[in-house]
Amino acid sequence: MADELRIHEHPTLQRPVLIGAFRGWNDGGQAATLAAGYLARLWGARKFADIDPELFVDFQATRPMVSLEEGTTRKIDWPENTFFRAPIPGANRDAVLLVGVEPNYRWRTFSELIAGLARDLGVELVVTLGALLADVPHTRPSPVTGAATDPQLVDELGLQLSRYEGPTGIVGVLLDACRRADIPSVSLWAAVPHYVQLAPSPRAARALCERLAGVLSTEIDIAELAEAEDEYVEQVSQAVATDADTAAYVEELEHRADSLDWLEESGGLPSGDALAAEITRFLRDRESNGDHEPETGGPG
202-216 vs 31-42: helix axis angle to the nearest 10? Predict the structure, then answer.
């Protein structure tokens, strides 16, 4: 492996699945990284490798953090892409959890490092988690779309063939690297209300975990996320209620979400065209606002 991939332990894994999430363009409402971090804690995951950020991250865009240890010693925490391992309860298989930040440079090299490690570990499936901003209300369950490029995998897991065309993030590049390495891959995306994009969304994180449980044919304890979700809905509802225009808009979204015609038209999930439209709008807003550190992205 290249020097940038730092392996601290070579684990022996049982039928491993790699689950990855990245902060940045692919992570609206921080839902994807919230879900991955929750799984790492829930399953008692242990770190075994990471990727040196030096060649991949623009530290002016994603700055390292300084903290104090024991009140005196200054410590620098660098942006990380870290691999953890854990057994998946009730699944007779292990998880490799990759939690990190979307790199700024050398995406192909970065993705090939991950695909190469996955191949060496015998990973049978790669599942990426993502979240995008969309016209969905915070008071309804977060829709999740699932896509794959392998027709057999699509049939087995009840997913869709990905027909998305347009801008992509590191998730899309990673899935392409997995395809070229002959590693089956799945992409799961949760929709997050665009009017509350800065608040972490335990509702979308929960939805991702529930859909992931279906992919893995196991159960995931989402009790803690469900509790946080109730508080999230209450706090957002209180904030929305202070602005009449926003409250009316959310009510309109609720009617749309509850409409049988809308559900039949979209299958209860955003269509590929709707996802692409959200991405286009986000990029347009980002350009007009001069934002160089976006919060979300689109399907890979």
Answer: 60
CATH top class, domain 5-289: alpha beta
Closest by alpha carbon to 154, among 187, 132, 176?
187
For residue 43, CA distances in Å to 88, 102, 114, 176, 221 come to: 7, 24, 21, 28, 10
What distance in Å separates the CA atoms of residue 246 and residue 111, rounded to the nearest whole number? 40
DSSP-based three-state secondary structure for 145: strand
Residues 6+ apart with CB under 8 A from 242: none
Identify any residues that bridge with 127 across adjacent strands, giving them in sequence order: 19, 186
**pLDDT tens, residue order, the chain (300 aa):** 568 999 999 999 999 999 999 999 889 999 999 999 999 999 999 999 999 999 999 999 999 999 887 777 788 989 989 999 999 998 899 999 999 999 999 999 999 999 999 999 999 999 999 998 888 899 888 888 888 877 888 888 777 766 777 888 899 999 999 999 999 999 999 999 988 887 899 999 999 999 999 999 999 999 999 999 999 999 999 888 998 888 898 888 888 887 744 444 444 444 444 444 444 454 455 555 554 433 444 566
Q: How far apart are the C-alpha atoms of 137 and 141, rounded to whole Å?
A: 8
| Dist. CA 272–CA 42, nearest whole Å | 32
Question: Does the global pTM surpass 0.85?
Answer: no
Specify the amino acid at residue 17: V
CA-closest candidate to residue 187, choices 113, 272, 246, 251 = 272
Helix, strand or coil, per DSSP, at residue 63: coil
Residue with tokens 């904030």: 239
- Cα-Cα-Cα-Cα dihedral of 286, 129, 19, 92, to 10°? 170
Contact between 93 and 18 under an 8 Å Cβ cutoff? The reply is no
Helices (H), 46-158: 107-121, 151-157
* N-term to C-term CA, the chain: 26
